[in-house]
Amino acid sequence: MPDRDIKLDLERHSRIGFDEAIFCAGKSSDQLTAILDQADGATLLLTRLEQTALDALPDHHRTTLNYEPVSRTAFFGNITPAQGASRTAVITAGTSDTPASREAARTLRYYGYSCTEITDIGVAGLWRLTERVEEIRTYPVVIVAAGLDAALASVLGGLVPGVVIGLPTSTGYGVAEGGMTALRSMLVSCAPGITVVNIDNGYGAACAAIRVLGAST
To answer: Which of 15, 124, 127, 216 has a CA that sits 20 to 30 A from residue 151's CA?
Structure first.
């Protein structure tokens, strides 16, 4: 594939503080290889990288990527390890929401931010939340990944003082409509000030959290 077909935005970090991110879904192995070849010496975050796509990459790229299969993310280049105390909690209503929440956590870690992952505290078993709520209240930013009715975002929005970023997921049956019900539920939340990102967009939720954390320093 000619280099002219790949136009990486390697100046993005100097403009807004975020590196180029590569959405891998729908890209061929030749396209992904050309991207990594062009990015030599840079750092990239790859999202939605399926195991089969990873396996199809040349050895010199496949073996150097830091890949995490649940989130389907990979780090390319030398990434600064997360440092400092965690200021973000990444929470799921259920373990089925973990692919989206883990994408958020991995994005935070790519940018050097520690985070605390708290899984499976949905409101169907409210005692699971009440056991952790005082801990959650200590974080200035809380990302809430939830599908089905996505009630957890509203509940936490009424209990914690920090920024709440709703991450609707595609988890659910029938009228859950691939996450549309969760998205609408978060958008119409009566808890004031909840921010909501797109369905399954853990990357976007993490970037929103980073903007908030950057503005508070």
So the answer is: 216
The answer to whether 78 touches 19, Cβ cutoff 8 Å, is no
Residue 14 is which amino acid? S
CB 159 within 8 A of CB 133: yes
Strand partners, 168: 146
Does 187 fall in a domain? yes
Domain count, the chain: 2
Percent residues over pLDDT 70 in the chain? 97
| Tokens matching residue 84 | 């400092």
* CA–CA gap between residue 31 and residue 52 (Å, rounded): 14
Structure tokens at 89: 């909690």
Check whether 16 has a pLDDT greater than 60. yes
| 59, 109: one domain | no
Question: Torsion angle, CA of 109/47/34/1, rounded to 10 degrees?
Answer: -170
State the residue range of the domain holding 14. 3-76
Instruction: Tell me what pLDDT residue 3 has.
Output: 55
CB neighbourhood size of 81 (10 A): 7
Indicate whether 93 belongs to any domain.
yes
